[in-house]
Amino acid sequence: MLATHVFKQTGSYEQASYAIQDTPEMVAKHYGRFLPQDKASMAAKILNEMWAA
Hints:
Layout: H1 2-10, H2 13-20, H3 24-30, H4 36-52
């Protein structure tokens, strides 16, 4: 659950792997699943941050 949360917030397998002290490959295999709306939400958040800057 922690790895999934970190991955959803950062989009980084590497950051999520640091959180649970595992490899990025293992995080991608087991925790890196997104529902389509999660991907769209992440992209919208990033775009909103860019436009706000």
